[in-house]
Amino acid sequence: MSHVDLRIDHDSSVPPYEQLRRRVVELVLSGELAAGTRLPTVRALAEQLDLASNTVARSYRELEADGVIETRGRNGSVVRSSGDAIHRELQHAAARYAELARRLGVDQDEALRVVSAAIVV
């Protein structure tokens, strides 16, 4: 993963663990990080990005909880899928949201505006 562009904006209002988590998801979805790609160790990535090890560890824990990576103990962490799990989760969440919007009587345009506003960071 040394060739992959991972940077943290230390002046950003977005916490570093979240910046790292989002960037890894982005790279998985784009295909730049393929299934089976081994990620740097927590310690190595923390050093590379000038972060505390706990910050990188939190990103890895959240990525694992989301099904993006898999941690194999002493064998490190690897990309779990090429984005299929992410898309599947998003599709389920979208279906639940659409059902809620219908139940509440919210029209499609308003439901999309609410989602767009929520996505903007």
CATH superfamily annotation of the largest domain: Winged helix-like DNA-binding domain superfamily/Winged helix DNA-binding domain
CATH fold-level name of the largest domain:
Arc Repressor Mutant, subunit A
In the sheet with the most strands, the strands line up as 1-2
Instruction: Look at the structure and give the mean pLDDT.
Output: 87
Brief summary of the model shown:
The protein is mainly α and 121 residues long. The chain contains 5 helices and 2 strands, in the order αααββαα.
Give structural notes:
The mean pLDDT is 87. A hairpin with a 5-residue loop joins β1 and β2. The protein folds into 2 domains: 16-81, Winged helix-like DNA-binding domain superfamily/Winged helix DNA-binding domain (Arc Repressor Mutant, subunit A, Orthogonal Bundle); 85-119. It is mainly alpha-helical. It is built from 5 helices and 2 strands. α2 (42-49) crosses α3 (53-65). The longest helix has 21 residues, at 84-104.
Which helices and strands occur, and which strands form pairs?
Layout: H1 16-30, H2 42-49, H3 53-65, E1 69-71, E2 77-79, H4 84-104, H5 108-119
Antiparallel strand pairs: 1-2
Helix pairs in contact: 1-3, 2-3
Quickly list its features:
single chain; mainly alpha; Arc Repressor Mutant, subunit A; two-stranded antiparallel sheet; 5 helices; 57% helix
